[in-house]
Amino acid sequence: MDGEFDETALRQRLDALRDEHRALDEEVRLLTMCGVVDQLKIMRLKRRKLSLKDEIFRLEDILNPDIIA
Q1: What's phi and psi for 19, nearest 5 deg?
Q2: How does pLDDT run across 26-62, given as a tens digit for each residue?
Q3: Using one digit for the tens of pLDDT, what is the confidence trace for 18-34?
Q4: Which of 31, 55, 59, 67 is the most buried (most CB within 10 A)?
Q5: 63 to 3, 24, 59: CA distances (angstroms)
Q6: Residues 6, 48: contact at Cβ < 8 Å?
Q7: Cβ–Cβ < 8 Å for 49, 24
Q8: C-alpha distances in angstroms, 5 versus 2, 12, 55, 62, 66?
Q9: What is the pTM of this model?
Q10: How far is the C-alpha of 61 from the C-alpha of 12, rounded, in Å?
């Protein structure tokens, strides 16, 4: 992201991504606990979780850049 960014908007987006990630995690947990064997659905949910995790890391890097001294 170039130039200035809206830190508040990024933090709100980050919170929303974290909430969605937690909800997907719970859905996967419940599906596997209940014995539901829709492996394709579980795979899609896990793939979405990974995608969210990548976006979360990207936003965290923008908000908290490593400072190399």
Answers
A1: -60, -45
A2: 999 998 888 767 889 999 999 999 999 999 999 999 9
A3: 999 999 999 999 988 88
A4: 59
A5: 13, 24, 6
A6: no
A7: yes
A8: 8, 13, 16, 9, 17
A9: 0.80
A10: 15
